[in-house]
Design brief:
Elements lengths: L5 H9 L25 E4 L6 H32 L1 H23 L2 E5 L15 H6 L5 E5 L4 E8 L5 H4 L7 H10 L13 E9 L3
Antiparallel strand pairs: 1-3, 2-5, 3-4, 4-5
Helix pairs in contact: 1-2, 2-3, 3-6
């Protein structure tokens, strides 16, 4: 197997925070973390060995596919049905995408936040410090069994404001759709550029 280019992986990993812009409106996922009650150690890209660098490359691929697939579905729904249609996409299609990508790549992938839209989308145990401090940079963890875990921040972009902005600005149709799909929603009141939450990926030893 070809050795991954660690310098490329380092560059790609550091640039992810800028790419997640449309996905704040869809947090629903049926995936569950592979490892909850385990020992995780914080690490960095520079400290990853060859095996972990390959795991990181897989995490990057899965995360990129999740972002692009969700974004295309959201944009199509907004174009066809207006902003309220995107909420429906998230409640039905987003969980399927997460499950399909987890199975395809042999990873576990999801999204979470400090202000949840879907209350079942709580963060995995190893993310507690990230959520508590609202860390705006990617974070990396290694488990004793060799599993690599990675977070990628999601920031609020203009389209996200349609569903996550000030309640007084969100349209009545969108508010109604949110209430129907997410009755315990907390995820409004954000401003442009705010940290919305994170993608997270767990990659077992390949």
């Amino acid at each position: 197997m070809l050795k991954p280019d660690k310098q490329f992986i380092r560059f790609a990993a550091m640039s992810f925070g800028c790419g997640a812009v449309m996905l704040a409106s869809c947090e629903k996922t049926s995936s569950t973390p592979q490892s909850q009650e385990v020992s995780w150690v914080s690490t960095s890209v520079d400290q990853l060995d060859e095996k972990a660098a390959a795991q990181l490359a897989l995490a990057i691929q899965a995360r990129n596919e999740m972002e692009s697939t969700l974004k295309s579905n959201l944009l199509a729904s907004i174009k066809a049905d207006g902003p309220h249609g995107a909420v429906g996409v998230c409640s039905v299609i987003a969980p399927k995408i997460a499950t399909e990508l987890s199975e395809k790549h042999g990873v576990t992938i999801g999204r979470t936040s400090f202000k949840l839209r879907n209350q079942t989308n709580t963060p995995p145990a190893w993310m507690k410090s990230i959520v508590d401090t609202k860390q705006a940079e990617s974070a990396y963890f290694i488990n004793a069994d060799g599993t690599l875990a990675v977070t990628y921040p999601i920031n609020i972009a203009p389209p996200c404001m349609l569903c996550h902005g000030d309640k007084n600005i969100i349209s009545a149709n969108v508010r109604s759709s949110i209430a129907e799909n997410y009755p315990a929603d907390q995820a409004t009141g954000f401003a442009l550029g705010d940290l919305r939450g994170w993608f997270w990926v767990e990659v077992p030893v390949q």
